[in-house]
Amino acid sequence: MAIVRAALLIDFGSTYTKLRAVDLDRASIIGSGQGPSTVTTDINIGLDKALADLEHQTGNLPDFVHTLASSSAAGGLGMVTIGLVPKLTAQAARHAALGAGAKLIGNYSYELTDLDISQIEAQRPDMILLCGGTDGGNKAIYLENATRLAASKLDCPIVLAGNRSASDAARQSLCNSGKNAVITENVMPEYLKLNIEPAREVIREIFINHIVRAKGIDLAASRFDEVLMPTPAAVLDATRLLADGTDGTPGIGPLMLLDIGGATTDVHSICDGLPPQSSAHFVGLEEPYAKRTVEGDLGMRHTASDVVAAFGGTEKFAAQAAMDSGVVDRLLIRCRDEVDWLPDSAEARAFDEALSRAAVEVAVERHAGTHSIVQTVHGPATVQRGKDLTQIGTIIGTGGVLVHGTGSRAALEGALWSAVRPQSLCPKSAEFFLDGDYALYAVGLLAAREPEVALALGRQSLKSLSKDQSNG
Amino acid sequence: MSEVNKGVLVTGVIGSDTHIVGNRILSRALEQEGFRVVSLGALTPAAEFVEAAIETNADAILVSSLYGQGELDCDGFRDLCTEAGLSDILLYIGGYLVVGDQPWEDVHIRFREMGFDRAFPPGTRPSDVTDVLEQDIAARRAHAKQGA
């Protein structure tokens, strides 16, 4: 049967250039292609190789109705966020940047010091998000930090999302020094009210208009319609589409996605996360409906020993994995020295399974909120801090170790509530799936143009992990 | 935001105290008087009063305590403000601040020594607070202007 309408979705990744060709009428993947990431030389070389690979699978390529791209090449979208109080506007700024698909390379609070400024200059961010103060609240620190950034050597775009009464003056002082500064709505306009969507949108726009060029991706600009967003944002959009559905088609409800990589673990949760029982008293900053956290110390290779440390040390990890602690130490050294190492024995596979399970447990515990009991004169009262994930019914895994390894279900079950951490508001029970074709970035990109097709494609690409079946 | 901004106030009930009603009445009355009120509600730790005051650039923090543990909960409150760069913020406290039948004068002195600008005994009406508060805020702002 001839394919009538097709789309090409490109991911300019840090290691590979990946392609998914999608039949829009059947909402199915026609073929995949992969080439190296060649952003440091000429991005077209990797794209050509990936296209040749795709064509090899599918025969002659159809004309594509949409050709859309996401990118995490050349370090991704590296951002520094700045707020006033760590738990308040600095936290809101972090949520906004992570939600926009950024890689957080620095987070600062209060007045920036000389050392902070030279650190930020050395971090060479692609963009800075400057916040501080509620609307009508503190101006002094926000303006002082704008002045300090104005006097710095930094030349990246700066998004201003602080106290609206001071944003004009902040912009003026930055523009006077020749900086590119854009004002958007405050990330925390009222005390504890989170408002990150406007900042996310502006970050995405600047990414499309400036960063794509700065990274050399526009060298291939004639070959696609648009680079829509950083790849993590595409994956977040896909999880949101799967959970919420479209205007015409319902989604699958509250869900969580876990992406375990070599250096980091990403956790996405889509749910409102408010206390389910009205008796719980919510404390602290609101949590994002679509929340993304990135654990920079939880990965399968570069940071493997940090995973074991965060889990509670070698002894505890070895006991959990039913391995000798000497073997664990030896394999941890191997992870550090050979970051491309793939498990080559039963022992190594068991180690990887235990490591991915530990990464999931720690990453989800950090992502989730907590309940604690406070004794009052009226008896015990329940206090909730952070996001309640107990209503989540679907958990999706992605990333090499889960997709290609064995025991993915066991690893993902580490996301569930357990008596070991009774106060943590983790999911109680869930159905488990894998993004086996690595299709979610494509779903997120396609969602911007054809949401119905994207949703159908997303649902189709989820591979169920039933209880007694392993994907290995 | 109100046109007549008489001042930004952070209110709440400190510690493990769930008695919210009086604090709500007070917050409502102050709003009607033209103050901007950031209401933190019950069960509020001391640090959260301070963090709210920083972000909102508050003129005053009004602490309620109605379960007799106010002295314990407010220990070091002024120091916390000073550390956070709010050394000149107005601090008020009111409610059933201590357990037992202690003379108000003694209680008042103790809370003044802890760094509260004013302490109010049980039975205080919102209208008793608004006038002095307005004066105190005006004085604080005038002082800040002189300093600048």
Explained architecture:
The complex is a heterodimer of chains A (472) and B (148). Chain A has 472 residues and is an alpha/beta fold. Chain A has helices at 43-58, 89-99, 114-123, 140-150, 164-176, 197-214, 231-244, 304-311, 314-321, 325-337, 346-367, 400-404, 408-412, 440-447, 451-461, and strands at 6-12, 16-23, 28-36, 64-71, 78-82, 103-108, 127-130, 158-160, 181-183, 226-230, 255-260, 265-270, 281-283, 290-295, 370-376, 379-385, 394-398, 431-435, 462-464. In chain A, the strands form 4 sheets. In chain A, strands 14-12-11-17-18-19 form a 6-stranded mixed sheet, sandwiched between helices. Chain A has a 5-stranded mixed sheet with strand order 3-2-1-4-10. Chain A has a 5-stranded parallel sheet with strand order 6-5-7-8-9, with helices on both faces. In chain A, helix 4 packs parallel to helix 5, helix 7 (231-244) crosses helix 14 (440-447) and helix 14 (440-447) packs antiparallel against helix 15. The two termini of chain A are 33 Å apart. Chain B has 148 residues and is of the alpha/beta class. Chain B is built from 6 helices and 5 strands, in the order βαβαβααβαβα. Chain B has a 5-stranded parallel sheet, with helices on both faces. Chains A and B meet through strand 15 of A and helix 2 of B.
Secondary-structure blueprint of this entry?
The complex is a heterodimer of chains A (about 475) and B (about 150).
Chain A: E1 6-12, E2 16-23, E3 28-36, H1 43-58, E4 64-71, E5 78-82, H2 89-99, E6 103-108, H3 114-123, E7 127-130, H4 140-150, E8 158-160, H5 164-176, E9 181-183, H6 197-214, E10 226-230, H7 231-244, E11 255-260, E12 265-270, E13 281-283, E14 290-295, H8 304-311, H9 314-321, H10 325-337, H11 346-367, E15 370-376, E16 379-385, E17 394-398, H12 400-404, H13 408-412, E18 431-435, H14 440-447, H15 451-461, E19 462-464
Parallel strand pairs in A: 1-4, 4-10, 5-6, 5-7, 7-8, 8-9, 11-17, 13-16, 17-18
Antiparallel strand pairs in A: 1-2, 2-3, 11-12, 12-14, 15-16, 18-19
Helix pairs in contact in A: 4-5, 7-14, 8-11, 14-15
Chain B: E1 8-13, H1 21-32, E2 36-39, H2 46-56, E3 60-65, H3 70-73, H4 77-83, E4 90-95, H5 104-113, E5 118-120, H6 126-147
Parallel strand pairs in B: 1-2, 1-3, 3-4, 4-5
